[in-house]
Amino acid sequence: MSDLASTFVFYRYKPSMVAAIIFIACFAISALIHTGVLIRKRTWYFIPFVVGCLFETVGYVGRALSSPQYPNFTKVPYIIQSVLLLLGPTLLSASIYMILGRLVVHLEAESYSMIKPRWLTKFFVLGDVISFFAQGGGGGLLTQAKNETDVRRGEHVIVGGLGIQILFFSFFMIVTFVFHRRISTKPTRRALTLTTPWRKLIIVLYISSCLIMVRSVYRVAEYVLGSDGELQSKEIYLYCLDALPMLMVALAYNWFHPSRVVSRNSHKQLSTTSLEVLG
235-261: per-residue pLDDT in tens? Predict the structure, then answer.
């Protein structure tokens, strides 16, 4: 990227040290709490979520490192924040997909799901993996860019990866809505007898899904407009449309962790057949 240094501007502003430190602290605390619950409740399907929170934490460390370098930014801190903040939400999404699959089985409502539970989690996680590698590949192209053409190529790959994420997440929101409507209209016997607040978990799924969608649309617009666009010219957009929504997602599951409904103990109560659909 040395040949690009004279023309490519890492930031078109001085990154805020204060904002970076605030979000480092918030994501780190959230990740620590999630790690404790994960180990205590053995909710291993939440590992991607915890890793996503760590990606966010380290990503803002990269921005904090860039702040005192203004205006002579170096490449490594920029790459750290660029790649990790891009990929973190993809990992959060992976665990969110798994929550719905487990909830469907937990309520013994397999017939209410648009996709059979055996394939539900696998289908959406596959899309998430494709999106992850596409965005990661685009980020890799950006880190190796030698000229403006290479930069645009990397941005186009990233937009493609984000597009895949938006498509799968949009469909996931539809699947969640249809399932919610069906289980509310005609609850299964288990749904009626359960004392756990599974309805609240669905609401949290809606909220987190909408927040991730807002962030993904913002990122697409950001890369489509390019480095000279309005969204990359002011730091406020990043914090309002990416950092804050993702922090709200992390905190939402701190406030209402899915283990309150879908725990390891609750799975032991289900039949072996039901558990098999989760792979």
Answer: 999 999 999 999 999 999 999 999 999
